[in-house]
Each structure stands twice: as C-alpha cells, then as structure tokens.
Write a structure and sequence with these properties.
InterPro entries: Znf_C2H2_sf, Znf_C2H2_type. By secondary structure, the chain is mainly alpha-helical. It has five helices and six strands; from the N terminus they run ββαααββαββα.
Amino acid sequence: MESSEFFGCAVRCGKAFTSNAYLKCHTASVHNGKIPTCDICGKTFVYKGSLKIHIDNEHNCTIPRCKACGKKLTRKDSLKLIIDLVHNRIKHPCHACGKTFTQKVDLKLHIDSVHKDQKSHLCDTCMRSLRSVKVMLSRVAS
C-alpha cells in the first residue's frame, strides 16, 4: 500500500483512514451501529480485538505474566515486548543515521518519515497528509 493511499468513508462523513480495516471498523461501529460489546459486563469497544482481549483478561483470567519479573500485562504481544526491551535490551538501529529504537515499528516509521520523506498521517481537520503524529499534534495545538 502506498503511504499516500487513504480509504474514505462511503457514507461521506469526511473521515479517511490509512487502512481498509480501520475503515471497516469505523463503518460498522459509527454508521451501522455494530459496536463490539461485552455480553458479560456490557462494556463497549471500538475494535472486536479489544473486546476479545477484555474478555480473556477480565472474565477468563488469562492475563499474561512475565516469568522474569512477574509483571502482569494486558496482551501477549506486550509480554514479548517487555522481554525484548527490559530483559534482553534489544535495540533496532537505523542503518542510515545510527539512531536506535526499542521497537521495529518505530524504526520503520523513522525511516519512512525521515529518510524516505513519506507522509503517512492524515489530519482529520485539514485532510493534509503529514509525516508524523508529532507534526500533526503540533499543528492541532497551535
């Protein structure tokens, strides 16, 4: 997918998304009224995946715990992250400038926005494509 490709809402509410999956979640919850809701406690969520995590953690008692330090986490992928970051101290270096990142996704965003000058964040207010969330937030704050 090109970074300049956005998926606009067919209902014409003015929203655009960076992936078709986000657009589908938006359409289902905002326009079709299909809000993921916990049948046990009634709590609502934006994404079905968040509902599943909630049910596993709150009602099925399957909270992941780090064996090294005992810390409880809300998601299994967070467990891998804490092991890599805290216990194994894994860093991901940028081969262009040497800056290091704790997560691969942050390294990819850095390379795309700084070294490839890709603009992948759509401002809901002005509909401009910006290179980072920080740039977008600084525009909103000013």
